[in-house]
Specification:
Elements (H helix, E strand, L loop, with lengths): L14 H28 L33 E3 L8 H6 L10 H10 L13 E3 L20 H15 L2 H5 L4 E5 L11 H7 L9 E4 L13 E4 L8 H4 L10 E6 L18 H9 L5 E4 L6 H5 L2 E7 L8 H7 L3 E5 L8 H4 L6 E2 L8 H11 L1 H8 L2 H5 L12 H22 L5
Parallel strand pairs: 1-2, 2-3, 3-4, 4-5, 6-7, 6-8, 8-9, 9-10
Length: about 425
């Protein structure tokens, strides 16, 4: 039988019943929240990045994001050396500040007026050592002599070491020098002697700004370096008509040393015989305007030319590279494996032609092909004022000019050096 008592419907649970039922979960939740709050309050803030030593000071690294008008953030301290290392040379001969090797003077003067220059050495990322080694015009032919260069640089380093502690802490790795002559850091105008002498031991950890640069191995570039353009007086850009307005009635132009017999009195072959071959192949060709004698107003001839031939001399580079760009004449570079300055800005394949030394005999065919195909494209790229400005050392420095580009390159080297240091020892 079933239960005779009537069944009652269960009463609805009260709030108290609900709280009792979930009290365990509420207590657990409350305990977790209190524990988390106590943990966070006791945890120290994230550690600040380790402070770099002053020659690896942290700075914004996105160079492209700084904008065209922004100054590179690298801070340079310029040593105030006695005048015998620099100013005395410039006073003694005005050519010191104007000839093709005068980048050493121009960079020094531009950095002295640079707004990012470090007033105190302890605030500097890099240290500039202003020594003018290419201003000794004591040779019979009037060209600079480098016979004193190594001794003068060694004296300057001794002075820097004795007067301040900054060289010794990095063995000179954050110190910058200019080597603006033929084979740069080897400090000799003849390649075989330069290679035999090598880079002075006391400069092997420093940074060299040098006009010399080639692809691949070479003794004279086995040092941290930036390839810079040869010096051309800034007024060249403005002394002749703007490139796009010039009347170009010369097809291909070269004026300079072309030896009928290329073996120099020293026993060396000048220009690796390239200039002699130019003379042999095109000396009587009316499309080629080739002259061996000096002419002070030769830049007016460049401004009239479609193509300006830039064959190697003793070294692969020459001031013609800069002069032709400034004057709107397409550089025809005949120097195998040459490295050009500031390639990210100038994009040399878009503004010049490169012909292999062995192909001099085919030069006319190459130039005719360019005229028939993409001459106007190359000229448009070449005549961009931004590209012309990047090759000029202004005093004071201007945004986008050659010294400004040097600072950008140095900033890249600083960034690379920091990554190497944090991956191991400093330039180990």
């Amino acid at each position: 039988m079933g239960d005779p008592r009537p069944r009652r419907s269960p009463a609805a649970p009260t709030l108290a019943d609900k709280l009792r039922k979930h009290s365990t979960w509420l207590l657990l939740l409350l305990w977790f929240a209190v524990s988390l709050a106590l943990f966070l309050s006791a945890t120290p803030p994230a550690a600040a990045p380790l402070r770099r030593s002053s020659f690896l000071r942290s700075k914004p690294r996105a160079l492209a994001a700084t904008g065209a008008a922004a100054a590179p953030p690298v801070r340079i301290y310029v040593y105030d050396l006695p005048a015998r290392f620099n100013r005395d040379w410039a006073v003694a001969d005005a050519r010191c500040a104007r000839h093709l090797f005068a980048a050493e003077v121009a960079v020094h003067e531009a950095l002295l007026a640079y707004t990012g220059r470090a007033a105190r050495p302890e605030d500097a990322d890099l240290f500039f050592v202003p020594v003018y080694v290419s201003c000794n015009f004591s040779t019979p032919n009037g060209f600079p002599s480098l016979s004193h260069a190594r001794g003068m640089l060694a004296d300057a380093v001794d002075l820097v070491q004795a007067g301040m502690p900054y060289w010794n802490r990095s063995a000179g790795a954050d110190h910058v020098f200019v080597a603006s002559h033929d084979f740069g850091a080897c400090f000799h105008p003849m390649e075989d002697v330069a290679i035999a002498d090598g880079i002075p031991e006391f400069l092997k950890r420093s940074i060299l700004l040098q006009t010399f640069g080639v692809q691949g191995h070479h003794t004279c570039q086995e040092v941290e370096h930036v390839v810079i353009p040869p010096h051309v007086p800034p007024e060249v850009e403005h002394e002749l008509p703007e490139p796009e307005k010039a009347q170009r009635d010369i097809f291909a132009f070269f004026r300079g040393k072309m030896e009928v017999h290329p073996k120099n009195i020293s026993g060396r072959f000048y220009s690796k015989k390239v200039r002699t071959e130019l003379l042999q192949h095109y000396g009587r060709n009316r499309k080629f305007y080739l002259k061996r004698k000096r002419f002070d107003n030769y830049r007016s001839e460049m401004a009239r030319s479609l193509f300006c031939l830039c064959p190697l001399g003793w070294a692969p580079w020459s001031p013609r590279l800069v002069e032709s760009v400034l004057l709107g004449c397409i550089p025809v570079i005949i120097a195998d494996n040459i490295r050009m300055p500031f390639p990210s800005v100038l994009q040399w394949p878009e503004i010049s032609l490169q012909v292999a030394e062995k192909d001099v005999a085919n030069l006319e065919v190459v130039l005719d092909h360019v005229v028939a195909t993409n001459l106007s494209v190359i000229q448009k790229n070449l005549w961009d004022p931004v590209k012309r400005k990047a090759l000029v050392f202004n005093r004071p420095m201007e945004v986008g000019d050659a010294t400004w580009q040097v600072l950008r390159e140095l900033e890249v080297l600083l960034d690379q050096s920091q990554r190497r240091r944090y991956g191991g020892s400093w330039r180990a």
